[in-house]
Amino acid sequence: MPHGHWNTLGNMLVEITEATHDVLLDIAYATSNNFTGAPVYTRSACYLHPDAVECLDRAIDLAGRQGLKLKLFDAFRPSEAQWKLWNFRPDPEFLADPRRGSPHSRGVAIDLNLVDRDGTELDMGTGFDAFTPLSHHGSTEVSAEAQRNRLILMGLMTTAGWDFYRNEWWHYQLFNARARYPVLSDTVLPAPMM
């Protein structure tokens, strides 16, 4: 890849930190606390495309007005990581086929939950990355409190400009992500995550 091209792509992603964006970060794929049972990333980091950062900032503001904070589990996911996840569990109900490309690998998707003033995650009825129908947005098989919390998250996120994925209460992405943004690899980052 020509150096100038790398700079262009590298400038497409903004690092999200707890200090710069007033969020909590718990990057699941940098730990063994994910469905693979092992770290996928060698470095815990959170990046988003500037268009997604605008929507994130709006969501942070809306959540703050409700006494809530966003806790991010994943954002930009290098295409190499998407292949690792797919090769571990090729489940199109919960994972984007890397041949099509995930919105995460375009820097325009986030996985998250809400936390209260004490930093306690709101009960959503399942954990992040629970590959079960209970994770679907419309599931009425989870408690009324979990359903209400999912609707609060959806309300904040969609008001801030995000689209939701119906099978995962934790996943939000920009509209028309596949048509508007290229798939990016680990090489666009200032320091590798893989």
Describe what is shown at a glance.
The chain is an alpha+beta fold. 30% of the residues lie in helices and 14% in strands.
Give the secondary structure arrangement, pairings included.
Layout: H1 3-10, E1 14-15, H2 18-21, E2 24-25, E3 47-48, H3 50-65, E4 69-74, H4 79-88, E5 109-115, H5 144-159, E6 163-165, E7 168-173, H6 177-180
Parallel strand pairs: 2-4
Antiparallel strand pairs: 1-3, 4-5, 5-7, 6-7
Binding site for Zn(2+): 104, 111, 171
Active site: 168
Protein name: D-alanyl-D-alanine dipeptidase
The helical percent reads: 25-40%
> Ranges with pLDDT <50 over ≥5 residues?
1-10
How many domains would you count in the coordinates? 1
Tertiary shape: globular
Order of helices and strands: HEHEEHEHEHEEH
Q: Which oligomerization state do the chains in this entry correspond to?
A: single chain
Task: Give the number of DSSP strands.
Answer: 7
Q: What's the CATH C level?
A: Alpha Beta
Describe what this molecule looks like in 3D:
It is a single chain. By secondary structure, the protein is an alpha+beta fold. It has one domain (3-188): 2-Layer Sandwich (Muramoyl-pentapeptide Carboxypeptidase, domain 2). The protein is 30% helix and 14% strand. A 5-stranded mixed beta sheet has the order 2-4-5-7-6, with helices on one face. The longest helix has 16 residues, at 50-65. It is globular.
